[in-house]
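Batch 3, record 17
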Amino acid sequence: MLKSPEEYRRSLKEMRPNVHKFGELIEDVTTHPATKRTVESHSRIYALAIDAEYEDILTTDSPLTGEKVSRYLSIMRSAEDMIANTKIKRLLFNVTGTCTGGRCGGWNGINAMWPTTFDLDAKAGTDYHERLKEWLAQAQRNDITMSVALTDPKGNRTLRPSEQDDPDMSLRMVERRDGGMVVRGAKIMICGVAAANEIFVMPGTAYGEADKDYAISFAIPRDAEGIRCVETTHPGDRRELEEGFDNPVGCGITQSYILFEDVFVPEERVFMAGEFKSSLPAVMGFIAPYRATMGGCVAGQGDVMVGASILIAWANGLSEKVFREKLTQMVANNETTFGMGVAAAVMGEAHPSGSWRTNQLLANVNKLHIATLPYETKRLAQEIGGGIAETGCMPSYRDMTDPDYGEMVKKYLKAAAPATARVRVARLIEWLTLGAGVPGCMHGGGSPDGARLIIQRTAEFDRCVGMAMELAGLEEGDISPPKKN
Amino acid sequence: MLKSPEEYRRSLKEMRPNVHKFGELIEDVTTHPATKRTVESHSRIYALAIDAEYEDILTTDSPLTGEKVSRYLSIMRSAEDMIANTKIKRLLFNVTGTCTGGRCGGWNGINAMWPTTFDLDAKAGTDYHERLKEWLAQAQRNDITMSVALTDPKGNRTLRPSEQDDPDMSLRMVERRDGGMVVRGAKIMICGVAAANEIFVMPGTAYGEADKDYAISFAIPRDAEGIRCVETTHPGDRRELEEGFDNPVGCGITQSYILFEDVFVPEERVFMAGEFKSSLPAVMGFIAPYRATMGGCVAGQGDVMVGASILIAWANGLSEKVFREKLTQMVANNETTFGMGVAAAVMGEAHPSGSWRTNQLLANVNKLHIATLPYETKRLAQEIGGGIAETGCMPSYRDMTDPDYGEMVKKYLKAAAPATARVRVARLIEWLTLGAGVPGCMHGGGSPDGARLIIQRTAEFDRCVGMAMELAGLEEGDISPPKKN
Amino acid sequence: MLKSPEEYRRSLKEMRPNVHKFGELIEDVTTHPATKRTVESHSRIYALAIDAEYEDILTTDSPLTGEKVSRYLSIMRSAEDMIANTKIKRLLFNVTGTCTGGRCGGWNGINAMWPTTFDLDAKAGTDYHERLKEWLAQAQRNDITMSVALTDPKGNRTLRPSEQDDPDMSLRMVERRDGGMVVRGAKIMICGVAAANEIFVMPGTAYGEADKDYAISFAIPRDAEGIRCVETTHPGDRRELEEGFDNPVGCGITQSYILFEDVFVPEERVFMAGEFKSSLPAVMGFIAPYRATMGGCVAGQGDVMVGASILIAWANGLSEKVFREKLTQMVANNETTFGMGVAAAVMGEAHPSGSWRTNQLLANVNKLHIATLPYETKRLAQEIGGGIAETGCMPSYRDMTDPDYGEMVKKYLKAAAPATARVRVARLIEWLTLGAGVPGCMHGGGSPDGARLIIQRTAEFDRCVGMAMELAGLEEGDISPPKKN
Amino acid sequence: MLKSPEEYRRSLKEMRPNVHKFGELIEDVTTHPATKRTVESHSRIYALAIDAEYEDILTTDSPLTGEKVSRYLSIMRSAEDMIANTKIKRLLFNVTGTCTGGRCGGWNGINAMWPTTFDLDAKAGTDYHERLKEWLAQAQRNDITMSVALTDPKGNRTLRPSEQDDPDMSLRMVERRDGGMVVRGAKIMICGVAAANEIFVMPGTAYGEADKDYAISFAIPRDAEGIRCVETTHPGDRRELEEGFDNPVGCGITQSYILFEDVFVPEERVFMAGEFKSSLPAVMGFIAPYRATMGGCVAGQGDVMVGASILIAWANGLSEKVFREKLTQMVANNETTFGMGVAAAVMGEAHPSGSWRTNQLLANVNKLHIATLPYETKRLAQEIGGGIAETGCMPSYRDMTDPDYGEMVKKYLKAAAPATARVRVARLIEWLTLGAGVPGCMHGGGSPDGARLIIQRTAEFDRCVGMAMELAGLEEGDISPPKKN
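Prediction for the assembled complex:
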């Protein structure tokens, strides 16, 4: 059953308050200024899903329930499904200006665990896949919002979890108990937690036997006993606590540190519990579609930067044609990350479990673009925007509305548009390029260096060497790799 | 009927000699050193098409003949067909090291004229589409190789064809005659002509009424009465006339100036004759798939550069791991132009005539990558290759085999591989990056500035402005474009 | 007489409070959290100038007073003096992390007006140069801090000042009065105003006769009657109002909107008053050294990013060697903008007034690097820093010190370094790349497009054409520019 | 005594023929088509040195002879001298279109050995410095052209010279004999040898004790007994053997493999003979000024590309303004490598021997620009030039002058300029970007990776870490490097 935005908000209000920011417990995430923007962002997904114009892209038929469900809770079974993911991400960035990771992360998580549990069960005779199916069917019926939690604090990067001074530096199973397990640790920098009904937990990396207690996956209500969420703070997010248009945007992004203080997870919600060999496929199954489809995210935000750049030019009295070359480059950047995401979907392949596997090589190449092109797009937006957009070089809303000198400030902020309109668009550019709207495109879904590693392992270097030998007229053995190096 | 490589070569031998290079008339293009390499390249297509491993990708069923035909003579009817185009281009660059434009250009031409003639007939009541069908069915049965000829000499770029001092600067119809028309002028820089059985001619640009005689399209045997082909000369192609391995590659690329001295074209081979309004869709229909699928070409050559770079490292005694970052970047460049071509295909749409239309925006964005990324890939190959690969800084084959000092030259050219093997791979890199193997990826299919123009016209700037206004909390009219600028 | 830091602070305390931020009048800029950081930054200049290790670079002998004075108040008379400028900017960014434009802007201003007034007097028989000399001698004796104010609000960019609906959109002379003139309007985005004793005002662009009242230059105490300063607000600067280490840096940058409400400027402080033909040389004389020496600014901040990147790697338990390639690129970026600044100084020439003129071409080329390379350096710092540095993805100081859950937050923020140390360095990277430490390197000193225009006018295209003709064996007239285009 | 061009040519004619190309012994390098172009290039240096307009830049006073000598044979004693080096390189590329390494390499060599022998003598009590002085005074008096020979064949890159199967893979001393030493091996890829009177030999890398016989330096007549030179062949250089304008340029570049078959070097010409510890300073003393001043080379060739690009636009009927952005970027690239060379000179320091030491860090950063920016400049020249310039896509001179169809070819090659003029400039661009005019800027003076290594060793990472700690409020020990990694 698709929820209305109101039903979604109500579901959040009914949860136990356990989100903190700036030392304060947030009683109602839907109204508190620190979290209401991300709730608004996610609400818009619910609104679009029941909007005739968008329902095709945002919903799909579920083989599990036989009903129309949100795509965010669906298993992607074809290239088309995966392309829809990229398109949805772009659309939502268009509509909210930033990341709604509280739903799309979870989407990615269930699609990573779907084939993983399928293969794991086949090998180990476990029943994780069935549990996942049942839980997912219920999630679809309730149309929940669900963050994904992958990243562990990790502590010292050169030591494995079990080698750390503090064994809690990655989330782990501390006890198997009748009917479930108990977990302790934290998952950090998790997107959209305040807007989420549940958290879908996955192993943070590939583990060996010594670290098998860290190889865990499960779904849990965000307000379950023992869970506490502490929001992170970004540049510019203090403006969200204020009136006025220093932050002119009604949507927003949040990221949480989720603390697990000996949390009990009932068996039917556990999808991995120590099967360390499945942690690698789980993570790889997460990474590839994530890195591919994120191209839609940065393209979607880039679209907004294109629009904002044109508006600031107009506000300054200039035709956007003056900036033709720069706008073309911005468009090219957007279409590149979007297009590469589409290509990674199309060049994928079906998995026996019925899900669709992204092409690893193209997905990871896209990650490199995602880690560079948006930076150029931002720079160009700042170049077009002029000094006020570059660093938000304008007096505050409070100064613009000061009874004494506010009018004079506005007098000097007007150009070809009135001061308020011009400031709003300049602040939007600032929000997109330096402020609270900046999503974590560089390290979200893992670092570019991680992507480079996968590219090195996936690229067919042998085949390339073979064709070069053939063309150069060389025979086997004419040139060989060095013995050691 | 698919031809064997031998049958293909025989078909070329049977043609009237009309290809010239260095002031010489080439009697047999299959054996003359200036043209035998491009014939060899195209022969490999024929060989692969009847090779069980490759026939799926290189052939398809024709609705026209009801038989299996070469894809090079097929109409692309789906995204999959167009992706196959990109893959074939990559494969052929892998196998020949360079461009086999003598077939793939023609492929693109028929796919541009297919919907164009369909729409034109619907409006004008002409029968071009039927003619094209019949001619094409015959071409499929004969499995011909067919270059496409689009580029006109143009003369002064700021004047239209009919404004030029010399009206022949673009190819034109000089006479309509019973049963056909007579054309005069030239098409220049045409790829693979020496290896072609026929030439598929298209209008070189969009024409207005004043230039309607230039709006012509037709297919003609390469050796038809009145046609003379003069080959161009590239850096390094004089090596093709010599023995030895200064050019170690058995394949090659050629480009011709095709001179039309009042050539008669029979009616059944004419697909446009003065319908100037159809010149724009013809050209646009050519450009988009060309710019998309060329990504396969440069990826395919990039694959060879990756292989050659690893080989030269080995020949120098180094592990390729030393150059890990550079190889990763080369791979990323290859996959980007390839992937964007795939995306442009997938995001396309069906045309009522049954053909598939590429996504213009993605295709033209890919053109920008094609005009830059291969240059970086070449630079990296030269960086890995060292001084000898950068500028081919080695004595010639004749010096290496000189009875007096040849051995001494070889003594100093050996490294971790014998001199000959090392030189062969260094010369391959030279051939790929500076020499006769360099295809025209920058201007082939039109210039990058042309692509930028299409991007500017295709990008949805209005939609972007709308979303930025929404997010910034602006209302209609708050900011408007300047009156004039 | 060189002031001590204490004397400098005292001089600020003695001024009339006229700086506003967030709707509040700041009573004491040296202690108010919104301005104390920029005062601290500028204090460090005073401290270094009397420090034996740095006095050579920070001071010089004045021909005006015969005494050792701050270089910030000196006329640059040689390439060495101008190189010192670049070095000082780098040093101060090293020491404060950000911009101390409250002194170095003024330095640039007096060096622009020195030759301008010299030439103007020679032509017009005025005595501006003498006035400037006398005022400067006094400024040197008092060792003042002096911002430069160039940028006007401008209003609609396509209309000249006198064509605007509101004639005040650029600062202008509204009345010549006995012993001086009265000015109205504003100068905006002016750096370091809160830390300044005086403001050095210059024309914002080149004016024609119709706009001659805008062609004005003068020096004025920052707290003169009729002047009001309203601070701008940047992402992250609200943290400056808080306790703790969410902003770990004791220095800072501020930018002001300076409102002039009919301010009287006494004659002896007026250096241009309507001589519109001198506005172009004034602006050009400002731009060139500014664009050259800013290379030191971004290099200096880049140095800090290099250091912070190494620290965050260590804090995460990694050797900096892992990021060798990235650090090398960061260093190369820093040295490029620094080196180009040095080159622009060296390739300059002496002006008859005794001052040194920067090489325009090299200075403007450097501007293009300044508008791009630091963005790459920031991106690389974020790439090395990981998710927490990229967007400051950490709970706030208040959460880290919360009596209830603060310890648990810190538990999960530690790595190879304790939580607080790691957070401090991650926040430093955030401050440098997204937060309050980001200076306006893109548009400071004018936009990159302005620099491109000057490059186009300065480059010796004719000479290049001549050498190409010579080499290609062409004679005069073989190829000529098109008549019109 | 400065030689006239004629005297220089005569000096070459008088030498023993020992230069080979394409299996042929060249009897007279001044007239043979394979070598006459590089002789012409070097002749122009002689012509300019006695031209009043250029003598200041090309000559200087020698403390050794007390006379005016060619700068190419001078010791650089100041930043100004080193800037002159950069300017001369730019000028000669402007005038010849390509590299005149036959003189400027030697210049660099003597400046590397000057301080090296000075320091070596001080430590070891040898008299190399005096020998160098005397030999140099004589060289100045004879105004010789002198190539530098540094690069050894090296064989397997992972083995040291003495570990190679063949000990001759680097040039070595095989015998000390009364009055001198005997050397065997080869120096390869040596520029301008055919135009040189002498060869100045240096160690190819830094050697340890085991390889001390490779640590040798000396000057020797190019035609000394036992020396044989074999020219390398580059793409496009076969055109130099032909008539017509397929290569329209009268100047050229050559590179040789110099084979030493037990060559005796008299004592007074030996400047290092086994003092292996001096090989590192020799090489480093060579590298730094080379990498700095090469910026002038690529800038100088870039100037020609700018000119040629404008000409081809005109020849096509277009205004150069169409390509404004691209030309601006080309100019920026040229000025960057030039400017960084100037900066590396200025930031250098004096050596006790009286010579000037380049700043290592800036010189090596410039190497990175030299290895990338010219590639972009070439790409832009090809983009502006269109298809004919990109790959030289034009029929040959022989086809253009064919009695039968030559006029028709020319008819279609004309545009806004006649065919011949247009082809000449298109061939010039081809020659510069793909053909025989391409110098080895990537690996000349060592590879970019070598430069990266020096940057890593030269950059002050500790100082950067210190300033970041200070700014972040960290104390000694708060964050430390990992123990091992």
